[in-house]
Amino acid sequence: MTYIDLEAKGMNLYHTFLNGQCFRWHDMREGKFAGVVGEKVYEAQMVDENTLRLHGASQNERDFFIRYFDLERDYVAIEHNLKEMDVVLHEAVDFGRGMRILKQDPWETLISFILSVQKNIASTQKTIECLCEQFGRKIGHHHDAYTFPTAAELVAADEDHIRQTKCGFRAKGVADAARQIDMGHVVLEDIFDMSYERGSEELQKIYGVGQKVADCILLFGFGKVLACPVDTWMKKAFEVLYHVRFEDMTAYSRFAQERWGAYSGYAQQYIFYFMRENYNKIKK
């Protein structure tokens, strides 16, 4: 199998793939992860503390994966700056050191986080795989690997058919997203050039996309790091670790953006991961 090596100073694959931002990378043990990106299956592993090896990737995909893994950004400096902000972030960054925020396909990110509503990560992964198996295309010789379905492929299916892929009530949002993207009512590529606020408004035209889901899409699909997704884990973190409590989720996002500014998305991800993995210990 062909492979490429990429410089990835201090990267930790566990903290990157298991922090809730992506759903199609799976732990294969012994430091290896397998995932579907686009129309291929790849295996990722760190061969030393600064080198990421991607099995299945070719040299002409190098630039794509440098962007996908955000490898040109200085995360060592980001982690240093976050730790200087407050004691909570100091501990959270130490716990999640080596995390990277992926730059994923916006369409896949949109549908994935619509499907994540009121679901845990494992359940969301199963639903996504079911959706891909039903409406995507089989990848090469991999008997259990499928592409992520396009908007056109989902538009061709009715909402009831989509619902059968363990989507439940989320099928309405999936169908509406496919329809709006396919008809050009929402143009995802345009959001790259929009402000965080304008991008959030545009995404919330789609049924099933509220502020939290929009923030996830903006952060993980568009690299807008002012976005600070606030779910139940982050709400607990603000209340338990920062001793603040607000009436609505929007106020938590404002608090985060006022406190962390341009680092909001990074801070959120370290704290979310720290809180989720250590909640039983923290609440004692």
Report on this model:
This protein has 284 residues and is an alpha+beta fold. It has three domains: 3-72, TATA-Binding Protein, CATH 3.30.310; 106-222, Hypothetical protein, domain 2 (Endonuclease III, domain 1, Orthogonal Bundle); 232-283, Helix-hairpin-Helix base-excision DNA repair enzymes (C-terminal) (Endonuclease Iii, domain 2, Orthogonal Bundle). Helix content is 53%, strand content 11%. The chain has 15 helices and five strands. The chain has helices at residues 13-17, 62-68, 75-85, 87-95, 106-115, 121-135, 151-155, 159-167, 171-183, 188-191, 196-203, 211-222, 232-241, 249-260, 264-283; strands at residues 3-7, 25-29, 32-37, 40-48, 51-55. Strands 1-5-4-3-2 form a five-stranded antiparallel β-sheet. The mean pLDDT is 95.
Sequence of secondary-structure elements: EHEEEEHHHHHHHHHHHHHH
Number of strands: 5
What's the overall average pLDDT, rounded?
95
Shape label: globular
What is the CATH topology assignment of the largest domain?
Endonuclease III, domain 1
Helix content: 40-55%
